[in-house]
């Protein structure tokens, strides 16, 4: 730059643990989100949104010590301690308390939005990621948990993941925190912190395996990096009883409960937990949730501290490397953080980024669809006012329309190539002669895509590319485009 101070350029890059989504990816994400939204609304869930930033006091301590470490902490212009939300459930608890005179309980909500955790980035793990939640707040009824699980199954089917008694493409594993509490209390282990430690260790089962869980329930172990991991300190006989409990399996939900009962002491806590799970099993049967879709698994723990009852996770069996793609449970004391009355709640959250990645791997993403349905292109000396007038007319008729605004006098080939790249199905062509005659040419590009897909011969390919075009009066433009879009 002669005679000027050279300007330092900023390197364009995303932060570590964050990601961009370009239009093609966003269109697919929006289509998947719309399918999920349709399921949730069919169950009566209502949309809400909350700020990304919350007061630090609202978030700290709600998810356990590990979650506290992962909070993105900031300071507001008023010098208030704030943090970026790490999930969508704690903000819901705050909303229920803050708007208790406005919201009618029980309250069903869905919420789609980004959350933030200062975690170590890795495969499928980001510091900003999107969650899609449903919750029912204000009822202790186990039927609410059953409806959450049934909606999770419906979501799987809505995105093309199927499951039946012979072929299982997904499974939802279900447990109850009260069952593990009853087991440990039966051993005389009543410390809340000790119980939470046991649950956190069991939650690692799929990641570290049974032997490492055994060591960590005892005196501890050394991880792969050589760092020591503190053990719970249980005696060997109690450890084996815990491992036997979490290894229980059965051919039916009620069958699992029969086996679970054999491992529990006869106590009020045991009877309460078993009664809840039997009711849940009956409700799932009433909702026609197959045994192959939703099964009881005593090894399921989930790491967050605020769960108090039934918990659940969904897995895609053909993509196990993605882990749990939907998870949730009952949290009957979370709202008490903000309100001096008990407000029970239950819900589930889809890890949306992980879910979409898994669907892509399984070939279950919807076919790429264009947002724009008609592209207006010009040939010769055509006034932009004529082009914009056509665009307005098409948009008024509910047809998403784009005007080609490329620099210079682009030819027909360039403009059609632009439409093909964007998968735009219709081209409305305004030529100089057509405009004078009050006509437009309309080309069915989608038909051309399909017609040419199997053609190998070059001449036949070019000939097919020239077909599917009609010239009509300007007054018939809208109806012709509608007809071609079908």
Structure keywords:
486 residues, alpha+beta, BirA Bifunctional Protein, domain 2, 18 strands
Could you characterize what this model shows?
The protein is of the alpha+beta class and 486 residues long. The chain has 2 domains: 23-361, BirA Bifunctional Protein, domain 2, CATH 3.30.930; 374-485, Anticodon-binding domain (Rossmann fold, 3-Layer(aba) Sandwich), CATH 3.40.50.800. The protein has helices spanning 23-42, 56-59, 65-70, 89-98, 142-158, 177-186, 192-202, 205-208, 210-217, 236-246, 253-263, 268-286, 352-361, 384-396, 412-421, 432-437, 445-452, 458-465, 477-485, and strands at residues 46-47, 53-55, 73-75, 81-84, 107-116, 128-137, 170-176, 220-222, 228-230, 294-296, 310-316, 324-330, 345-351, 374-379, 401-403, 426-431, 439-444, 469-473. The strands form 4 sheets. The protein has an 8-stranded mixed β-sheet with strand order 1-5-6-13-12-11-7-10. A 5-stranded mixed β-sheet has the order 15-14-16-17-18, with helices on both faces. The longest helix has 20 residues, at 23-42.
How many helical stretches? 19
**What topology, given as strand order, has the largest sheet?**
1-5-6-13-12-11-7-10
Q: Shape from CA axes?
A: elongated
- How many individual β-strands? 18
Q: How many independent structural domains?
A: 2
Would you identify the CATH architecture of the largest domain? 2-Layer Sandwich
Q: What percentage of residues falls in helices of 4 or more residues?
A: 40-55%
User: Regions with pLDDT < 50 over 5+ consecutive residues?
Assistant: none
Arithmetic mean pLDDT: 90
The assigned structural class equals alpha+beta
By CATH reckoning, the class of the largest domain would read Alpha Beta
The largest sheet, given as strand count, sense and whether it forms a barrel, is: 8 strands, mixed
% residues in beta strands: 15-25%
Report the C-alpha radius of gyration, rounded: 29 Å
CATH superfamily of the largest domain: Bira Bifunctional Protein, Domain 2
- For the termini, the CA-CA separation is 55 Å
CATH topology-level fold name of the largest domain? BirA Bifunctional Protein, domain 2
């Amino acid at each position: 730059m002669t005679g000027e101070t050279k300007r330092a350029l900023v390197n364009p890059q995303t932060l570590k643990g964050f990601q961009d989504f370009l239009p093609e990816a966003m269109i697919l994400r929006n289509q998947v989100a719309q399918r999920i939204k349709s399921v949730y609304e069919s169950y009566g869930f209502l949309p809400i949104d909350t700020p990304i930033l919350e007061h630090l006091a609202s978030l700290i301590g709600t998810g356990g010590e590990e979650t506290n470490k992962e909070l993105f902490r900031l300071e507001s212009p008023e010098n208030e301690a704030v943090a970026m939300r790490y999930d969508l459930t704690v903000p819901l608890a705050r909303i229920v308390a803050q708007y208790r005179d406005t919201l009618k309980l029980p309250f069903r909500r869905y919420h789609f939005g980004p959350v933030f955790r200062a975690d170590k980035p890795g495969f499928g793990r980001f510091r900003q990621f999107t969650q899609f939640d449903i919750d029912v707040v204000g009822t202790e009824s186990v039927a609410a948990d059953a409806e959450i699980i049934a909606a999770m199954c419906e979501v799987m089917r809505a995105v093309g993941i199927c499951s039946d008694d012979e072929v299982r493409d997904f499974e939802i594993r279900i447990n109850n925190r009260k069952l593990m509490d009853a087991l440990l209390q039966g051993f005389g282990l009543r410390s809340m912190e000790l119980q939470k430690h046991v649950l956190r260790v069991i939650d690692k089962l799929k990641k570290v395996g049974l032997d490492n869980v055994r060591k960590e329930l005892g005196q501890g172990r050394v991880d792969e990096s050589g760092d020591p991991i503190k053990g719970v300190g249980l005696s060997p006989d109690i450890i084996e009883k815990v491992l036997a409990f979490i290894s229980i399996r059965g051919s039916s939900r009620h069958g699992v409960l029969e086996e679970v009962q054999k491992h529990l002491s006869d106590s009020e806590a045991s009877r309460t937990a078993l009664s809840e799970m039997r009711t849940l099993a009956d409700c799932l049967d009433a909702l026609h949730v197959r045994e192959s879709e939703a099964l009881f698994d005593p090894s399921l723990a989930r790491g967050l501290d605020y769960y108090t009852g039934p918990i659940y996770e969904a897995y895609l069996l053909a993509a196990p490397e993605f882990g749990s793609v939907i998870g949730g449970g009952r949290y009957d004391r979370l709202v008490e953080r903000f309100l001096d009355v008990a407000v029970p709640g239950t819900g589930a959250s889809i890890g949306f980024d992980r879910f979409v990645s898994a669907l892509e791997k399984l070939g279950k993403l919807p076919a790429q669809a264009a947002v724009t349905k008609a592209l207006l292109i010009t040939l010769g000396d055509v006034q932009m006012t004529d082009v914009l007038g056509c665009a307005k007319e098409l948009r008024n008729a509910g047809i998403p329309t784009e005007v080609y605004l490329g620099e210079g006098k682009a030819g027909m080939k360039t403009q059609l190539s632009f439409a093909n790249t964007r998968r735009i199905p219709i081209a409305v062509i305004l030529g100089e002669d057509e405009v004078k005659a009050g006509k437009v040419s309309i080309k069915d590009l989608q038909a051309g895509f399909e017609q040419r897909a199997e053609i190998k011969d070059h001449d036949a390919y070019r000939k097919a590319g020239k077909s599917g075009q009609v010239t009509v009066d300007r007054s018939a433009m809208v109806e012709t485009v509608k007809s071609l879009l079908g």
